Amino acid sequence: MIYGPENPSVPQYIIQEYYDRSIETWLPDFFEQELARPDLSIGTQQNLYFHYTAALSYLDRKSEAAVMADKAREVFRQDGSLTDDIEQMLTGFCE
Question: Model pTM?
Answer without folding.
Answer: 0.85
